[in-house]
Design goal:
mainly alpha; Ferritin; about 80% helix; elongated
Length: about 130
Amino acid sequence: MTMKELVRAAITGEMEDISSCEADAEAFAGNTEVAAFLNSLAAEKRERLSELRTVLREGTGFRQRKNEISKSVEAALRARATRAERAASVYSALQKVFNKPEYKEALRALSARESVILSEIRKLQANLKKD
């Protein structure tokens, strides 16, 4: 992928995550652990979007999009896990493209955070399977 495609993938992915996390959190408010996780993830990604604007020097005008609500909590977590894997790979690819060390470090931190989010999602999935 070219740099421009990677930048667009990063920004649109974050916007989609925010919209779908908020929608899923409302839909699965009965499961407080998952709803709290999704709400905190949406808040974190909102902050990250402004950080991305600084690093990528690209407009990130957030537009709320209508997303389909997941059919189950498990499906919502699977979608978030897939998105976290994709985001980590996009950030690591962007890291290779940039020359400035401070931008590389910021993208390395974003990629590491996505890996942590993925492990948190895996723990939630394991807890749901136990119950």
